[in-house]
């Protein structure tokens, strides 16, 4: 029985099929290879524009400029880094901004998201767009507005303060207030973004939890702290880590608003990196700073995971 | 083991990338033909702002003399020119670089030392014949250590003091009585008490170049002629003490940034502006209503002997070695930097103050300007330009300028003591540049 069937198979009136298979085997594109081929452009670009710079800057961080070009100096750049006063100042600035700005921003984002998620609010779409708008606004345009608003002599903020009898504040010219301004502008810009993430998290909390709590007699505030916050924990953690990374890489805002001044009060670690690389041509030193930032981000993210008690 | 192979291959790819990026250099000799018609081809020029406008404006005249050269002026922002120049010089590929590019003399040595041998030696092309024809401070700043031209000198920013004649008059202060910085401070006190107007405004959020000007006019700088850090010098201490005294007598107002500074001038919040000649453009443009109320004088001196010149800004034209049409680039650069009539046009139309000494003899320099109460302002600044001492900007100018600036702002805002200011400049600048610090 088996012999005739195999003969019949060979004599099947649809011979192109085995032929096609043979053709396919010879061609480079196979079903197995196709996905890789489709991925290839992305991988090539990733290697050229991400992997290559990462490795090259790692090598650069062990080099310095000499008269004849770049020479390897071992750990010299890193040693210099840990003796550099300006490096510590910019690191301290970055952490001060992080410590004050992150909780304020996330707190506001949670409150705003909860309010905008509540049933009684009208024009929800309008408010959501309004709060999110700063995240998609061109920062250069926005910072021109802020420079005008915050100007010491003719800015509207000081004008309003003077109406209630307060002295003019050097929002951008005083080292302390410049930091405050930077925190305010960063918060203005990124609160809406985090609000949207948290809003998505809120909408995933099952409503029966709130119903059960209402039956047990918990008021809205109690519900917020005992249901909303614990349920939101992973979402808040995500927002916190993304924002921490963002703050450690904070560059645009201080660059456009204060250019790091006055007296380096708003020079963030990334700005210091930029200056060393692109203004002083000290690419080796700049790369060393970049690697320290990478290590810091990794450490902070690890600590946040541990602290939030997230397990796999 | 598989993973290790991947890493190995990746490293190979990366190293081959790097090898591919190291370009070969063209070492062909360039000779400039005598006959202008023999020079041909296309050249690209990178420049910013008014300099780009100036270069664009002279192209028609250039093509009358050199009909076979096509010039494309690529006007960009200064940051863009510098950033693209960095990547272009790093790659050293002709197609990544222009044939001629605008570079300030303060930046020139940074580029030269960090990208060795990437600029054309212009003296070898024949620019050496213009030696001694430019303001000395400018000419020395664009030469290399062998005295060869590295760049063709364009504009200068001689620094003087602009003052409000009406405010001086109101306070009963005679501007001619101001000869030294002491006189300036005394005048400031009188103006302050009689009119309530501050003597000067400093942009503490941006840069405070006053200290640099005061060093420069004394022939001193952040660095000495051999490149050592020289902030402990008596000139430096004298300059800082003078600024400190202005602060103590409350003559200085903090005008935050550029806009604040312009508005302080416009609104009459300050009586004087120590600044470069290019301020006249901003003044005429943004405060036309103050026409006839301004005067100009050289910087006050520290004692009778010392020169009164300082420089604040100015750029030059360089030819990258990777350029494929150096002849055409050279003749265009030469045309833009040595033709007196064109340079006078640049002064009148773009406000670019030339560094070619021959231009100062032209009648336009003697012209009285209505805006400056019929003073011949250009003439005042031409003599400042001639008197400006030669200083060594070094390849670490940008870093030094930032560090000095921060410390001076600390002194003015936080009351940081002077000796600490000087000490911190030296302690920060020394390790980060690897330069020696001259002892006090």
TrEMBL record, chain A:
Q: Name one GO cellular component term.
A: plasma membrane
Q: Classify the source by domain of life.
A: Bacteria
Its localization reads: Cell membrane
Tell whether Transmembrane helix is among the UniProt keywords.
Answer: yes
Claim: Transport is one of the keywords in the record: yes
Compositionally biased residues, Polar residues? 1-11
Q: What is its main location?
A: membrane
Residue ranges of every copy of the ABC transmembrane type-1 domain listed in the record: 91-304
Transmembrane intervals: 34-55, 95-119, 131-150, 232-251, 283-303
Q: Where is this region: Disordered?
A: 1-21
Please list the GO biological process terms of this entry. Answer: transmembrane transport
Give one Pfam family. BPD_transp_1
Please provide the record's keywords in A-Z order. Cell membrane, Membrane, Transmembrane, Transmembrane helix, Transport
**Which SUPFAM superfamilies does the protein's record reference?**
MalF N-terminal region-like (SSF160964), MetI-like (SSF161098)
Which Gene3D superfamilies does the record associate with it? MetI-like
Membrane topology field = Multi-pass membrane protein
PANTHER family in alphabetical order: ABC TRANSPORTER PERMEASE PROTEIN (PTHR30193), INNER MEMBRANE ABC TRANSPORTER PERMEASE PROTEIN YCJO (PTHR30193:SF37)
According to its UniProt record, which protein family does this protein belong to?
A: Belongs to the binding-protein-dependent transport system permease family.
Name of the protein in its database record: Lactose transport system permease protein LacF
């Amino acid at each position: 029985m088996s012999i005739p069937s195999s003969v019949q198979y060979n004599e099947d009136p649809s011979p192109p099929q085995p032929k096609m298979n043979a053709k396919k085997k010879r061609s480079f594109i196979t079903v197995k290879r196709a996905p890789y081929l489709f991925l290839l452009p992305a991988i090539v670009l990733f290697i050229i524009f991400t992997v290559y710079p990462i490795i090259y800057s790692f090598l650069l961080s062990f080099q310095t400029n000499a008269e004849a070009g770049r020479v390897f100096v071992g750990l010299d750049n890193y040693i210099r880094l840990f003796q550099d006063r300006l490096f510590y100042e910019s690191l301290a600035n970055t952490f001060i901004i992080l410590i004050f700005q992150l909780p304020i921003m996330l707190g506001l984002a949670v409150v705003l998201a909860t309010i905008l998620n509540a049933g009684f609010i009208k024009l929800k779409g309008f408010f959501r767009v309004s709060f999110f708008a700063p995240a998609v606004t061109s920062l250069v345009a926005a910072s021109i507005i802020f420079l005008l608003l915050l100007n010491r002599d003719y800015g509207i903020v000081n004008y309003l303060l003077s109406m209630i009898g307060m002295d003019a504040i050097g929002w951008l010219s005083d080292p302390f207030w410049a930091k405050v301004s930077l925190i305010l502008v960063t918060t203005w810009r990124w609160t809406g973004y985090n609000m949207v993430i948290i809003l998505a998290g809120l909408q995933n909390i099952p409503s029966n939890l709130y119903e059960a709590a209402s039956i047990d007699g918990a008021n809205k505030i109690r519900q917020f702290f005992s249901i909303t916050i614990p349920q939101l924990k992973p979402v808040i953690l995500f927002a916190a880590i993304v924002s921490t990374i963002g703050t450690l890489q904070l560059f645009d805002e201080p660059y456009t608003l204060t250019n790091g001044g006055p007296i380096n009060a708003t020079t963030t670690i990334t700005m210091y990196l930029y200056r060393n690389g692109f203004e002083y041509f000290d690419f080796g030193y700049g790369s060393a700073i970049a690697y320290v930032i990478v290590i810091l981000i990794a450490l902070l993210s690890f600590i946040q995971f541990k602290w939030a008690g997230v397990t796999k | 083991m598989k993973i290790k192979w991947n890493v190995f291959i990746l490293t190979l790819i990366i190293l081959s990338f790097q090898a591919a990026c190291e370009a070969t250099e063209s070492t062909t000799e360039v000779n400039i033909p005598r006959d202008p018609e023999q020079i041909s081809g296309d050249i690209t020029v990178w420049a910013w702002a008014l300099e780009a406008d100036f270069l664009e404006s002279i192209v028609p005249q250039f093509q009358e003399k050199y009909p076979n050269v096509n010039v494309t002026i690529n006007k960009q922002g200064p940051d863009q020119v510098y950033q693209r120049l960095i990547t272009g010089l790093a790659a050293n590929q002709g197609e990544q670089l222009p044939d001629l590019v605008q570079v300030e003399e303060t930046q020139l040595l940074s580029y030269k030392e960090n990208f060795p041998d990437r600029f054309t030696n212009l003296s070898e092309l024949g620019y050496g014949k213009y030696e001694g024809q430019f303001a000395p401070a400018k000419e020395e700043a664009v030469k290399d250590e062998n005295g060869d031209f590295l760049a063709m000198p364009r504009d200068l920013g001689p620094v003087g003091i602009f003052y409000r004649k009406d405010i001086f008059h109101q306070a009963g202060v005679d501007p001619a009585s101001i000869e030294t910085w002491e006189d300036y401070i005394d005048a400031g006190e009188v103006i302050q008490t009689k009119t309530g107007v501050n003597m000067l405004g400093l942009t503490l959020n941006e840069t405070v170049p006053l200290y640099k000007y005061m060093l420069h006019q004394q022939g001193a700088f952040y660095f000495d002629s051999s490149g050592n850090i020289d902030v402990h010098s008596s000139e430096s201490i004298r300059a800082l003490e003078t600024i400190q005294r202005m602060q103590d007598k409350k003559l200085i107002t903090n005008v935050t940034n550029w806009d604040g500074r312009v508005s302080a001038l416009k609104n009459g919040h300050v009586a004087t502006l120590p600044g470069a000649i290019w301020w006249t453009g901003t003044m005429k443009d943004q405060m036309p209503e103050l026409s006839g109320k301004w005067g100009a004088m050289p910087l006050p001196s520290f004692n009778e002997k010392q020169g009164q010149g300082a420089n604040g800004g100015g750029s030059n034209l360089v030819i990258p070695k990777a350029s494929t049409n150096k002849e055409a680039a050279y003749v265009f650069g030469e045309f833009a930097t040595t033709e007196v009539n064109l340079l006078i046009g640049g002064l009148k139309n773009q406000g670019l103050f030339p560094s070619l000494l021959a231009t100062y003899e032209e009648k336009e320099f003697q012209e009285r300007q209505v805006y400056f109460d019929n003073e011949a302002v250009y003439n005042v600044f031409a003599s400042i330009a001639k008197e400006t001492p030669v200083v060594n900007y070094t390849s670490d100018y940008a870093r030094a300028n930032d560090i000095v600036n921060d410390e001076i702002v600390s002194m003015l805002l936080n009351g940081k003591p002077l000796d600490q200011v000087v000490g911190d400049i030296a302690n920060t600048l020394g390790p980060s540049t690897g330069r020696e610090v001259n002892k006090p």
